[in-house]
Amino acid sequence: MRYTSLKLIFCLLTSNLFVFSQSNAQNAFDEKHIEVSLRMIGHEVLLNSGDSISRVLPILKENDHYRLQFESEFEFSPDNLVAIVDRVVKETNLALRYIVEVEQCETNETVYSFEMGNFGKSDIIPCANRRQPKSCYSLLFTLLSQTETDSAIATPINNSLNKSNTGLKYSLIAVLALLIVIGLFFIWKRKNKSTRNVHLISLGAYYFDKRNSELIIEQQRIELTSKEADLLLLLYDAANTAVERGVILNRVWGDEGDYIGRTLDVFISKLRKKLEFDSKVKIVNIRGIGYKLVLDV
Questions:
Q1: What is the 3-state secondary structure (H, E, C) of 34-90?
Q2: pTM
């Protein structure tokens, strides 16, 4: 029953982890789409300034912003910049609402910025018609919403909640992974125990390892000869029942002809010595019959 439950838990955890991995894969796809769209904007900005050679540098993600950098200096007209960005954003379905800030590379000063959304354009810094001189600039993009639903509810509080949800998601993934490892450990332990019990026989505080001819008690291993192991196994199979002397001699020594009358008594004495650590396990002499392995159960 427990093994079946562990298998069920393992399947559920694996399926949840798969769902999370699929979500992460979708997020990775979205990031690639954003990067491609922003690079398109960068190329259009350079072309508009008359530069068809310079490269757009790799996009950097800084918290909830994306930084678009350029290899060379350029000049721009704010109105043209707004038009270029708005056109590419709509063509690529990048976002419904966003903020663009233009920073001067050396001073990190914001020389121009604007916000776009369903309500149209909003200039945060005036002088939209003043052409900015040739210099090193970087464009900082903040995507406020990427769907109609996001646009309706997008607020700073929502953004904070989204960050919290992202952190919670990764925490859940870590917990699920840990639970899967624990589940696998218990499954392995159960299988290992089942395999071990095939070869181990419980004798009170001892374990009798019939494959390796050993008695195990706590951390101690006591070696048995092959005859001692055969004798103990025979007595165990008939535990708490007397086994006739003739039966023991025939089963353990057979037709070998190398035993005499006292041989069995010597082996019984040796086994008693090796089983002395547990008083509940005894080999007793049944007068006129043979021997009996007594186990208190």
A1: HHHHHHHHHHHHHHHCCCCCCCECCCEEECCEEEEEECCCEEECHHHHHHHHHHHHH
A2: 0.44
